[in-house]
Design a protein that fits this description.
Number of strands of chain A: 16
Radius of gyration of chain A: 45 Å
Oligomer: heterodimer
Strand order of the largest sheet of chain A: 2-1-4-5-8-9
Strand content of chain B: under 5%
Helix content of chain B: 40-55%
Strand content of chain A: 15-25%
């Protein structure tokens, strides 16, 4: 790979997640080195990055994106009938200065065997698919040799080895990365990342091999010296060899456990950072809030609706009374007159008369007999009443209309109407407020991906448990290692005493000493090499970082110490690393990555997803202007949202200056080689696909 | 009717609206935005009758529906119906109470005249209840 200037020529995606059949061509122009792929959220940007990762390493980088959805495009997969298949493939073609140099492809073949549509998780498909579907993965790596002939392999082992040579997975984080999480690049185990980067570009593998060789030779000469000294020394040497073997085995186990521990620590920190952004507790609080707001909303809705009912009933009940007021008053008057004229005597008199006659008793309590004058008078009155059959209905009318009249005060009705309306308005506005609150909370909840958050929380718990287990194992292994080291030291002492002084023994001992001297020199070379590269990376990082950030005058230097810890020292001598803003940390990461890349002599392309998502204002423009200067001839692909790419600021709050958009900046500096837009096209109520349009 | 002591004032079994308004009457009790949502047919009948009276609109029914049981009229509604007759037939006085059928017929005709206004009020306004209240307030002020 050394000395190569590599550019992605194209990526072909077929039935991969939202992509059905799409080819994306990248800029090959050395100066107009930027390819912009613009798309809204969910348009397929991250799926594109995942497709590249999957093609190279067999798994996606950002696993949460699919949320259980499998790699094969679901529109296509769902339509397959028994016996039919759906091939999902990604083909990446890489150019060097002479044209196509590498072509890497991976295909997932999904075939429907039967109509069982219950879901199951499939490792190859990386998601839930129908149980009636089987999957098969194949891959191919083609490479053009110096004579222009193409050599291809589809054997898994050779494929992995070829990809590892072409772009080792660890190095991929310096080639394809997510800008949104770059701000946390140095917030977790930064020393390990820096050490990684520096070791990768330092040419250490060759030195390491030499060290390995000389370590073997030292042991070999030591064994030969023992063998030449007789049985006792040979036996001790055999014991020593066994112990050393055990020691190496345990050392390897310790190293694996330490590495695992480090990964657990790193992963849990990354997950913690992600969890902190969208904490489960905040989500649960919001959900509780939403619930109580919903209860309020329902209550107010009922109050308002009840109040409308009261008002309606009140209007309907009184409407006819008021409109017919003149009629009821007229009738009431007629009835009164009729009663007073005796045309319709009130029925109460009739009952009263009957009562008096039956008890033969006067109203004053005086008793009288059948033939008395009082009785005759009462009988005459009864005859008169009998002749008025309208008495009952008239009396009912008089009573009813009188009741009604009491309710017909317009002022009282108007006041009641106003009161009812006000109450209804109060409840309606309380309902509206409650609805707004609920909607606001629902909007806030939309920012939380519940499945993702719960997955993160579970993931974090699992990692912490695994870390605790590994921690226990590690302590055990470390103590075993210490014990064996002690035994080896004792055996070495015994061996020195048992080793003879013959010429042959002396010869091997001398060779052993010479090998030890070579080894010491190699250790020094390794240290010097690392120091040299570390300093180069440190200086380059500082240079680029100071150029990129706005408050560069406050930064004195960037330091990477012998333990690979990075520090950003200000003019007061204080380390600012922990207090850098998200944007500044992102630029520190970019500067470091650019510095590491510059120290290597292989020019890989660079692909950044959401590079400016967390950066605003002048820092965006600086990055667009200055990054190409530090990454000359590097093909840079940015996956951006419309806002990231096209937003300009009329007047910056701090400087008052107009800040152009990234698009304008790239166009002005003649850096824009190709511009593509990803659009999500709806093809049915439940499905959509990504289409790619080149912006001319 | 003979004037004997067994006389009982009673409307015929059903009051009617014109078949033409049959759907409208039914809709008014079923549509949520209606001012008569979940109310009785008698409420509509009496309100229409009152509007008919105020607007002096009374039309004979072309085809009677015979669908509102008069038993469900409250005393108050019965006396609104009677009062309307007495007011619109001032010469007949209390003796008019001998003629419940005439009284109800008169009410049906006014309700038939008023229902057209009620329909207009309902159909021409997005918020019929507000329009009805506005109309109501006119008679209160």
């Amino acid at each position: 790979m050394a000395g190569e200037n590599l550019r992605i020529k194209s990526i072909e995606l077929k039935n991969f997640r939202p992509y059905e059949d799409v080819t994306i061509e990248f800029s090959q122009d050395k100066t107009k080195s930027f390819t912009i792929i613009e798309g809204n959220n969910s348009a397929g940007k991250t799926s594109l990055i995942n497709a590249m990762y999957w093609c190279l390493y067999g798994q996606e980088q950002f696993l949460n994106v699919g949320e259980g959805k499998p790699i094969p495009n679901q529109n296509i997969l769902n339509k397959t009938k028994v016996g039919e298949g759906c091939d999902s493939s990604v083909i990446i073609t890489i150019n060097d200065d002479k044209g196509p140099k590498y072509q890497i492809s991976r295909t997932l073949e999904s075939r429907r065997q039967n109509n069982d549509r219950t879901k199951r998780y499939d490792d190859d498909a990386a998601g839930q698919i129908d149980s009636g579907i089987t999957t098969l993965i194949s891959q191919s790596f083609s490479q053009r040799d110096d004579r222009g002939n193409w050599e291809a392999t589809d054997d898994v082992t050779r494929f992995i080895s070829k990809v590892a040579k072409f772009l080792p997975e660890k190095l991929s984080s310096f080639v394809i990365f997510n800008g949104e999480i770059l701000d946390s690049f140095f917030k977790t185990e930064n020393a390990e990342k820096i050490k990684d980067g520096i070791e990768k570009v330092s040419g250490l593998p060759i030195t390491e091999k030499s060290i390995e060789h000389w370590e073997k030779m030292v042991k070999e000469y030591s064994r030969k010296a023992a063998r030449s000294s007789g049985t006792s020394a040979t036996l001790i040497q055999e014991k020593l060899d066994n112990k050393e073997k055990t020691f190496d085995k345990i050392s390897k186990e310790v190293s694996i456990l330490e590495k695992n521990m480090e990964e657990y620590r790193e992963n849990s920190k990354q997950l913690q950072i992600e969890s902190d952004k969208y904490p489960l507790k905040a989500l649960e609080l919001l959900k509780e809030q939403q619930y109580s707001e919903e209860v309020n909303k329902k209550q107010y809705e009922k109050f308002a609706s009840d109040q409308t009912d009261f008002r309606t009933t009140y209007i309907v009940d009184n409407f006819a009374r008021i409109l017919l007021k003149s009629a009821t008053e007229h009738t009431s008057q007629l009835l009164k007159e009729s009663i007073s004229k005796g045309e319709t005597p009130p029925p109460v008199k009739h009952f009263f008369l009957e009562d008096l006659i039956r008890h033969r008793e006067c109203m004053c309590g005086t008793k009288f007999n059948e033939s008395s004058s009082e009785m005759t008078h009462l009988n005459k009155l009864r005859e008169k009443v009998k002749n008025s059959p309208l008495a009952n209905i008239s009396f009912e009318g008089k009573e009813t209309l009188s009741d009604m009249e009491n309710k017909l005060d317009p002022e009282t009705i108007l006041a009641r109407l106003t009161e009812l309306r006000e109450k209804e308005n109060q409840y309606s506005s309380a309902f509206r407020e409650a609805t707004e609150k609920v909607n606001g909370t629902i909007e806030k909840l939309k920012e939380y991906d519940e499945v993702k958050i719960r997955k993160l929380a579970t993931g974090l718990d699992n990692i912490r448990q695994a870390r605790d287990i590994a921690h226990g194992e590690l302590n055990l292994k470390k103590s075993q290692k210490q014990a064996i080291a002690l035994e080896i030291k004792t055996l070495e002492g015994q061996k020195t005493q048992a080793t003879g002084t013959t010429e042959v023994t002396k010869k091997w001992k001398m060779k052993e000493n010479l090998a030890k001297m070579s080894l010491t020199t190699l250790y020094q070379v390794r240290e010097e090499l690392l120091t040299d590269i570390r300093e180069k990376v440190q200086n380059k990082t500082e240079e680029i970082f100071k150029k990129l950030i706005t408050r560069h005058w406050q930064i004195d230097k960037v330091e990477i110490d012998e333990n690979y810890k990075i520090r950003v020292i200000d003019t007061e001598g204080v380390d600012n690393l922990k207090t850098l803003s998200a944007g500044q940390t992102l630029y520190l990461a970019l500067s470091y990555i650019a510095a590491v890349r510059e120290v290597t002599d292989t020019n890989y392309p660079m692909i950044i997803d959401s590079p400016f998502g967390r950066v605003s204002g002048m820092e965006r423009v600086r990055a667009a202007e200055d990054l190409p200067l530090y990454l000359p001839e590097t093909q840079i692909t940015l996956l951006v949202t419309n806002t990231e790419y096209n937003a300009e600021i009329e007047k910056d709050l701090q400087t008052g200056k107009h800040i152009p958009s990234i698009k304008d900046t790239l166009q002005k500096n003649k850096r824009l080689g190709k511009e593509m837009r990803l659009e999500l096209e709806k093809i049915s109520e439940t499905s959509s696909r990504t289409i790619v349009e080149e912006v001319k | 009717m003979s004037q004997d002591e067994t006389f009982e004032f009673k409307f015929k079994k059903y009051a009617s609206y014109d078949e033409e308004y049959s759907d409208f009457y039914k809709d008014l009790t079923k549509v949520t935005k209606s001012f008569f949502y979940q109310k009785n047919m008698t409420n509509i009948f009496i309100t229409a009758m009152a509007i008919g009276f105020k607007k002096d609109a009374h039309d004979p029914l072309k085809k009677s529906s015979n669908s509102i049981p008069t038993e469900v009229f409250t005393k108050e509604e019965r006396w609104l119906i009677i009062s309307l007759y007495m007011k619109t037939h001032p010469k007949e006085g209390v003796s008019t109470l001998w003629e419940p059928e005439q009284i109800l017929k008169n009410a049906e005709e006014y309700a038939n005249g008023g229902i057209a206004y009620l329909k207009m009020l309902y159909e021409d306004n997005d918020e019929p209840l507000e329009a009805l209240e506005e109309e109501f307030r006119k008679y209160l002020e």
